[in-house]
Amino acid sequence: MFTGGILTVSDKGARGERPDKSGKAIQECLAPFGIRWAKYEIVPDERQAISDKLKEWAEEGLDLILTTGGTGLSPRDVTPEATLDILDRIAPGFTEVMRAESLKKTPFAMLSRAIAGIRKNTLIINLPGSPKAVEECLEVISPALPHAIETLRGEATECALKEQDSK
Hints:
Layout: E1 3-9, H1 11-14, H2 21-29, E2 36-43, H3 47-59, E3 64-68, H4 79-86, E4 89-90, H5 92-103, E5 116-119, E6 122-127, H6 131-141, H7 145-153, H8 159-165
Parallel strand pairs: 1-2, 1-3, 3-6
Antiparallel strand pairs: 4-5, 5-6
């Protein structure tokens, strides 16, 4: 079982003016993976608030942190910068495949500035703010999440053999 956190980045959500449908979409989409959601919070689009929360949760040892919101071009969209502030290493494959698959559905996918990476042994991935986009992105990356987390934990070995065994 993996432990996870959902960090929703939304000024209106943080003020209680908008329900968090994207955070709920994350939980529903990943329910089959048995993730224990140990942390959930809504923060405003403030770089320091975002990076502080990501750092805190990674230091607590969560396996996975998913953010939703704040990845676009608006001046208030600072989730990628806040994420980069605390990462040890980037993991661009997640966001590359999310953008590539999303582009098949909408040209606006190219506006995403989402980042993915690792702090200590925690995988952190920025997701879009819309519930529909969250669902579409998780559909693409969710098959790789268990193996990625096992790898970060040092539990996965022989990646090529697993792939061959599944054929």
